[in-house]
From TrEMBL:
InterPro entries registered for this protein in UniProt: CB, DNA_brk_join_enz, Integrase-like_cat_sf, Integrase_catalytic, Integrase_recombinase_N, Integrase_SAM-like_N, Tyrosine_recombinase_XerCD
Organism placement in taxonomy: unclassified sequences, metagenomes, ecological metagenomes
Ranges of residues in domain Core-binding (CB): 63-144
Family statement drawn from the similarity comment of this UniProt entry: Belongs to the 'phage' integrase family.
Transferase in keyword set: no
Any one GO BP annotation for this protein: DNA recombination
UniProt keywords, alphabetically: DNA integration, DNA recombination, DNA-binding
Coiled coil: none
The protein, known as: Unannotated protein
Molecular-function annotations in GO: DNA binding
Tyr recombinase domain: residues covered: 165-350
Length: 378
């Protein structure tokens, strides 16, 4: 009797189930199915993926989004406590309800697009959706790097447009007026408004970080507040140490601050001593001072924008502005503050003209190109 030829090698019947086996780099991977057709289909899918170089170990890709997001979050040891809290909020509020039970390989570009559309339809703001999508993209990208996905389905998903809110900044006069409203913290306001150092970084500054000789401070750390109100010291946002100069007019005040203090003492403290407390400072000191000054929509971060605005209006090169603000690149500075450079473009060109055509006073300007007015022809 002729021997039966197995038309589907790698497919075996086991009781009332069918087992499919695939091999990759000499290692066997198997899956059991209710029907032979399902087993054959799975095996062919594995083989086609191997041929395209897109094969993913089924044991790795079977993890759910909820499980993988826990691994991803646990590995994020280089972020501040407040950033981590933001990730947790977006996961629990938006991402886990939508994708938590799905296997990583089951999440598709179309599914993510439908989630975006539904979130907007249900009243979520464009900014909230974009930030949640950003976290989703990071989590899935980590899965790609870990060999659990061959591509990131979050890439290329259409996102809602957001109106870029113009950064508010104070003028010299407004900055001085605001500082004058808080006698005990006048130096802190002027320091923040002329150095652009973030609140968390200012809170972490110690007397040892100050160089009166160089008129600068070394910004190495930042302090954030944990979920239970504890103070957490971590590296700066960019994980880089930077040296930030301060105006010479602040030397007397800063010299007085560090006088007779231990090197590890906070440079700026609350009135009763101790590390600066954001909520306490904003509620008791800053917001009332803003109101008394007649200003609107001014937060502490406005002082950082003020530094950028004042530097740009004084013709400071973009490279210097980026270095002072601690931006990772000049492109980041242009993305945030580029419109201010555009607003001042005529002023810069006039300065060029002054240097090229002036010999002294305005009366002595060299008239190289006499202007002849012609009648316009209609």
């Amino acid at each position: 009797m002729p021997r039966k030829v197995n038309r589907n090698p790698g497919i075996t019947k086991r009781g009332d189930k069918w087992q499919a086996r695939a091999f990759h780099d000499g290692k066997e991977f198997s899956r059991t199915f209710a029907t032979q057709d399902e087993a054959v289909r799975w095996k062919r899918e594995q083989e086609r993926a191997m041929e395209r170089g897109e094969w993913i170990d089924p044991n790795l890709s079977s993890i759910t989004f909820a499980e993988w997001s826990k691994h991803w979050l646990a590995a994020k040891t280089d972020i501040s406590a407040s950033t981590k809290r933001g990730y947790v909020t977006r996961l629990n509020t938006h991402l886990i309800p939508a994708f938590g039970k799905s296997k990583l390989t089951a999440i598709t570009n179309n599914q993510i697009g439908q989630w975006v559309a539904k979130a907007i339809e249900n009243g979520s703001g464009a900014v909230v959706v974009k930030r949640s999508h950003s976290v989703l993209r990071q989590i899935l990208n980590a899965a790609v790097l870990d060999g659990r996905l061959n591509r990131n389905p979050a890439i290329g998903v259409p996102l809602p447009r957001t109106k870029s809110k113009e950064k508010k900044a104070l003028s010299f006069e407004q900055l001085r007026a605001l500082a004058a409203q808080v006698t005990d913290y006048e130096l802190l306001i002027l320091f923040a408004g002329t150095t652009g150092i973030r609140w968390g970084e200012i809170s972490a500054l110690q007397c040892r970080d100050v160089s009166i000789l160089n008129r600068s401070v070394n910004v190495e750390k930042a302090i954030s507040t944990g979920a239970r109100g504890e103070k957490i010291v971590s590296p700066t946002k960019t994980h880089q140490v930077r040296t930030v100069p301060f105006p010479k007019d602040l030397i007397p005040g800063i010299s007085l601050l560090i006088e007779s203090k231990p090197a590890e003492s906070p440079l700026f403290q609350m009135q009763g001593g101790g590390v600066l407390d954001y909520n306490n400072f904003m509620n008791r000191i800053f917001r009332p001072a803003v109101e008394r000054s007649g200003l609107k929509d001014v937060g502490f971060h406005t002082l950082r924008h003020t530094t950028a605005s004042l530097l740009i209006s004084n013709g400071t090169p973009i490279t210097a502005v980026a270095g002072i603000l601690g931006h990772a690149s000049t492109q980041m500075t242009l993305d945030v503050y580029g419109h201010w450079y555009e607003e001042d473009i005529n002023k810069y060109v006039d300065r060029l003209g002054d240097s090229l055509f002036s010999t002294g006073t305005d009366k002595e300007r060299t008239n190289i190109f006499p202007v002849t007015l012609k009648e316009s022809v209609s």
